[in-house]
Specification:
The complex is a heterodimer of chains A (304) and B (302).
Chain A: H1 19-24, H2 29-60, H3 66-71, H4 74-104, H5 110-119, H6 121-124, H7 127-137, H8 144-153, H9 164-192, H10 196-204, H11 209-237, H12 241-247, H13 258-268, H14 272-280, H15 283-300
Chain B: H1 16-56, H2 76-82, H3 92-123, H4 129-140, H5 148-158, H6 164-187, H7 192-200, H8 205-216, H9 218-234, H10 237-242, H11 251-260, H12 266-286, H13 288-295
The chains are: A mainly alpha (304), B mainly alpha (302).
Chain lengths: 304, 302
């Protein structure tokens, strides 16, 4: 196999069987070097900027004394409730809307195409800019929302961001506003991938409207919908921008979520280990999610 | 939600005209429903963006008033941003250049590292390539914000604080996994025989990568490039933590600094925000088709 004739390439050689051979597989010497050289940059990036920070973070959060301190913090207790609400409402309302809207956008006609182009704007515009805009919109005195309520209905709107529940609601609605278009596009593509014959056959058999959706469309979309739910849960758990810019975690730290509380602990009250601990307390939820997701993504070949 | 609401089977007892009328009424209702829903969607979508435009068009004193359309549209604040005419905006162009550099480098490195990796795994079929794929998959499902604190510490240790390359490193690390997926998925549509025949003609792996793989992957490269650029443009947390000096910071960090002051010049902020939002929106609409093809490549398989 050292005779470097070009014809031999790719033909599995059965002559020698060494450990070296099993390591490099069917590739010829120089090809193996190339193949290795091509993956080394990514491996280096992964080890230096992903694996090392993960290990470093686990080490930072490994002190047992951190956790009683964290769990007895009233801000942390509120944060857990907020995170749970944010997850439950943010993920499910958004995806359910996306599921319905993806069906709506299946309608024919030029108007639907134009509408879809307008509809994806929240996703195309940078997050920070729109969240800052929403923050100002919700200002109790000069915000656009209250101005509008007053001009149109002569109602004095509340100070949205001065109350824990309206502020948290504002965060959730902002998240839904920002991300529904993205998931709608994904589910729309999922619907498009359903072969026309299936839809036609179903229609002939009388499965139209709601019945067609329940018996034909949804069963075919269910796996994709599940993957979207899982991925969206992970993304939302790590979402920093919506909370940070819309409510700022306020009033009085009552609308923090785990991702923002970690940063706040680390950089505002200068206790990085407590910050890591806050983030790590999400691990019992993250790890099973990651395992299920990795299995699902590997088998289903969904690209997001 | 059916797309074919009109031609359902009708009982035979209907007379022709009754049937026609029912069909017509149904079509009328569907159209009205579509129009109503469209209106709601447009208002819902546009409201925060309208708010941005409205405030950016107001002269400085007008921000703290209660009207819901511009009384006098003035481009004063846009002009102020472009000429760095407000003390908040002294470094606007510098910061814009930083954002641009960050986005461009992230895109280039993501494309380079991602395509090299997927070429090695997918085309050269390196042994244990699945390990690399899994590492990438794992990275994709770890929330980036969860790693921010240790990442910040590490960059401090490396002496890379206030260096834009620390942010580029983070963004490349989080964007490459997506690149690897899309490239591998797209690469499956290119028959391996193309590579084999080139090799018989004596092409080295490097030549295969440059002359055959990259040109054939062009659509996927565009999709992933757009993704990486938008990711860098959207990212805030890492830029905020790692870039704090006036000359190294990017536009999002500068914008957020506006927010923390009591006397925020809202019209300038919103003008800055709009200028910052224009490039990604333009890129998004230019590459929209390519991008959604990349986003959903594979869609549902089974």
């Amino acid at each position: 196999m050292d005779t470097a004739s070009v014809v031999e390439i790719g033909r599995p050689s059965v002559r020698r069987d060494s450990i070296w051979r099993s390591l490099r597989g069917p590739l010829k010497g120089s090809e193996y070097t190339w193949a290795l050289a091509f993956v080394v940059p990514y491996i280096a990036v992964f080890v230096t900027f992903v694996a090392y920070p993960v290990v470093y973070g686990l080490w930072m959060g490994s002190e047992p004394r951190l956790y009683p301190e964290l769990f007895s913090d009233p801000i942390y207790q509120k944060t857990v409730v907020n995170t749970a609400l944010y997850l439950a409402l943010g993920v499910n309302v958004k995806l359910f809307l996306a599921l319905l809207l993806s069906g709506f956008f299946m309608r024919p006609g030029w108007w639907m195409k134009v509408l879809l182009m307008i509809f994806v704007l929240p996703w195309a515009v940078p997050q920070i800019t729109t969240f800052i805009s929403i923050h100002w919109m919700l200002n109790g005195e000069w915000g656009f929302l209250n101005n509008m309520l007053y001009t149109l209905f002569h109602v004095e709107g509340p100070h949205w961001l001065n109350d824990r529940w309206t502020a948290l609601g504002a965060v959730i609605v902002s998240h839904i506003w920002k991300w529904t278009p993205f998931w709608t596009l994904i589910l729309l593509a999922g619907r498009m991938a359903i072969p026309l014959e299936i839809r036609d056959t179903a229609r002939v058999d009388g499965a139209t409207g709601v019945r067609g959706f329940v018996h034909i469309t949804f069963p075919l979309l269910a796996n994709l919908y599940l993957i979207c739910t899982l991925l969206s849960t992970i993304f939302l758990l790590g979402d920093f921008n919506a909370v940070y810019f819309v409510s700022g975690g306020g009033p009085a730290n009552s609308t923090q979520v785990l991702a923002t509380l970690g940063i706040r602990n680390a950089f505002e009250i200068a206790q990085p280990r407590l910050g890591v601990a806050a983030v790590m307390s999400a691990l019992p939820m993250v790890i099973p999610l990651v395992i299920v997701l990795m299995r699902k993504l590997r088998t289903a070949q969904v690209q997001l | 939600m059916s797309t074919v609401a009109v031609d359902t089977a009708l009982p035979s007892s209907y007379t022709q005209s009754q049937a026609q009328r029912a069909v017509r009424r149904r079509r009328y209702l569907t159209t009205a429903g579509t129009a109503l829903l469209s209106l709601v969607l447009v208002v819902w979508t546009v409201l925060p963006i309208y708010n941005m435009v409205l405030i950016s068009l107001e002269p400085e004193g007008d921000v703290f008033t209660d009207h819901i359309w511009p009384r006098v549209a003035s481009v004063e604040s846009f002009w102020g941003v472009l000429t760095q005419g407000h003390w908040y905006l002294e470094h606007f162009w510098r910061q814009f250049a930083n954002s641009f550099y960050l986005g461009a480098m992230t895109t280039l490195l993501t494309l380079l590292i991602g395509s090299l990796t997927s070429f090695s795994i997918g085309r050269l079929r390196i042994r244990h390539g699945w390990l690399v794929s899994n590492a990438a998959l794992l990275t994709y499902v770890i929330p980036a914000s969860f790693l921010a604190i240790p990442f910040y510490r590490i960059m401090q240790n490396y002496g890379l604080a206030n260096n834009v390359w620390s942010v580029i490193a983070a963004l490349v690390a989080f964007a490459t996994p997506y690149a690897i997926f899309v490239f591998q998925e797209y690469g499956r549509s290119i028959p391996i025989e193309v590579d084999e025949s080139a090799r018989i003609d004596g092409a080295s792996p490097m030549q295969l990568y440059l002359r055959i793989y990259l040109p054939l992957m062009a659509p996927a490269l565009v999709a992933v490039g757009t993704y990486a650029l938008l990711l860098a443009w959207n990212e805030y947390l890492y830029q905020f933590l790692l870039l704090s000096s006036k000359s190294s910071m990017t536009v999002p960090v500068a914008l957020a600094q506006f927010l923390s002051s009591d006397q925020s010049p809202w019209n300038y902020m919103m003008a800055t925000a709009i200028i910052y939002a224009l490039p990604p929106v333009a890129i998004y609409y230019a590459f929209r088709r390519r991008m959604s093809a990349g986003l959903t490549m594979g869609g549902v398989k089974g």
